[in-house]
Design goal:
Elements (H helix, E strand, L loop, with lengths): L6 H18 L3 H7 L5 H8 L18 H14 L1 H21 L2 H12 L4 E5 L15 E5 L2 E12 L5 E8 L10 E7 L3 E6 L10 E10 L4 E2 L5 H37 L1 E2 L2 E2 L4 H29 L5 H26 L10 H9 L8 H12 L1
Parallel strand pairs: 1-4
Antiparallel strand pairs: 2-3, 3-7, 4-5, 5-8, 6-7, 9-10
The chain binds acetoacetyl-coenzyme A (CAA).
Length: about 375
């Protein structure tokens, strides 16, 4: 067992951390209020190779491993979780499934644009009537003129407002009502209509949209096996959940950093509040739980890089890290007291941002179901 990162992993982590500290974190509060970050940020992330960390160089990526990508997500999310989820969905929910399940032609056509951030990736599984029960989706794809007519509506699609590429799931077997009979398609954002921009509790700098689809796509837009696309959705989420777990660790780390600094400076009853055992215990618990979550995340990433099964490990990492982040960002507010509840400090934003990690890419209840299925 080796707990050291490789020199390459450390180097990529440092690139992401330095960039995030200099160019993201100082603007995060402003972007939270503005409900957007500048689009140019994604171009710069693309130039740094951070839009395609674990994409092979032959497709325009940085050619690093999945572990490096996970380290990058933690650093970006520590600075601004909205930027973190934008990169996470773009990479693990769009670029990676095309790489893993697309034909050579599809990989060459779509991945290089995604890798440099010229196209931004989305993942369209959820619908108004199907969230946790993703297999109940009703968006349909019917054969038309050698291609497919796709009709339906998708909800809470991260990144749809940016121009780019959507990995979209639709029912190709009208005789089914469950996960069977679903196929995966690659659709351009220009071929769908954005019907709504969601207002959220947190992650305000990221874009979340509802989309309506009534479009004909060519036959070469279907990828993977017809009627077996749900497997692609599930294996994509297996990796994506490790990314969301890393995001949760990044948010919790940011909250801990602020709480620790505050405890060393703030005076009460004639002493630094960090001299009181009540505050010390909070910081000790935060530090311990962040370490534990990070170990689960890195273990799941290592399993994935090793080509080993990682469904349950990813679910455990996401479940623990997300609940930890919600708990510990609340504790950070408590350490700061009244100041923590105001926008003078960023911990209230971390608390709002942390909550979604218990919901998207599978709720905590679904993670427990996935883990229990593996156990039983
Ligand atoms: N890997 C590969 N295939 C898998 C799999 C996995 N981990 N898990 C299941 N499958 C396959 C099964 O083998 C089966 O395949 P066949 O039909 O070919 O035999 C098929 O998928 C259906 O599997 P189940 O019968 O287990 O399906 P189910 O209906 O019982 O659902 C579920 C399982 C775990 C509840 C699933 O619906 C689920 O994960 N729900 C949560 C959905 C979710 O996470 N949504 C997130 C939206 S994306 C998002 O949030 C992005 C964002 O913006 C941040």
């Amino acid at each position: 067992m080796n707990f050291e990162l490789t020199p390459e992993q450390r180097e990529i982590q440092a690139v992401a951390r330095d960039f995030a500290n200099a160019e993201i974190e100082p603007h995060a509060a402003e972007w939270d209020r503005a409900h957007a970050f500048p689009r140019e940020l994604l171009d710069t992330l693309g130039e740094l190779g951070l839009m395609a960390v674990c994409v092979p160089e032959e497709y325009g990526g940085a050619g690093a491993d999945f572990m490096s990508y996970i380290l990058v997500l933690e650093e970006l999310s520590r600075a601004d979780a909205g930027v973190g989820v934008t990169v996470a969905v773009h990479t693990s929910a769009c670029t990676l499934p095309i790489l893993a399940h697309g034909t050579d032609e599809q990989r060459r056509r779509f991945v290089p644009l995604l890798a440099r951030g010229a196209a931004i990736g989305c993942f369209a599984l959820t619908e108004p009537g199907s969230g946790s029960d993703a297999g109940a989706l009703v968006t349909s794809a019917e054969p038309e003129d050698g291609g497919w007519r796709i009709r339906g509506a998708k909800q809470w699609i991260t990144n749809a407002a940016y121009g780019g590429t959507i990995v979209l799931f639709a029912r190709t077997d009208p005789g089914t009502r469950t996960a069977r009979g679903v196929s995966a398609f690659i659709v351009d954002t220009g071929d769908v209509e954005i019907t709504r921009t969601e207002e959220k509790l947190g992650l305000n700098s990221s874009q979340t949209n509802d989309i309506a689809i009534d479009t004909r796509v060519d036959g070469d837009r279907l990828f993977g096996e017809q009627n077996h696309g749900f497997r692609i959705a599930m294996s994509t989420l297996d990796g994506g959940r490790i990314g969301i777990a890393a995001q949760a660790v990044g948010i919790a780390q940011a909250a801990y950093d602020v709480a620790r600094r505050y405890a060393q400076e703030r005076q009460a009853f004639g002493r630094r509040i960090g001299d009181f055992q009540a505050i010390q215990h909070k910081l000790a618990n935060m530090s311990m739980e962040i370490d534990a979550a990070r170990l689960l995340v890195l273990h799941a990433a290592w399993l994935k890089d090793s080509g080993k099964p990682h469904t349950a490990a990813g679910a455990k990492a996401k479940l623990f890290a997300s609940e930890m982040a919600r708990r510990q960002t609340a504790e950070a507010i408590q350490v700061l007291g009244g100041y923590g509840y105001t926008k003078e400090f960023p911990v209230e934003r971390y608390y709002r941002d942390a909550k979604i990690t218990e919901i998207y890419e599978g709720t905590s209840e679904i993670q427990r179901l996935v883990i229990a299925r593996e156990i039983l």
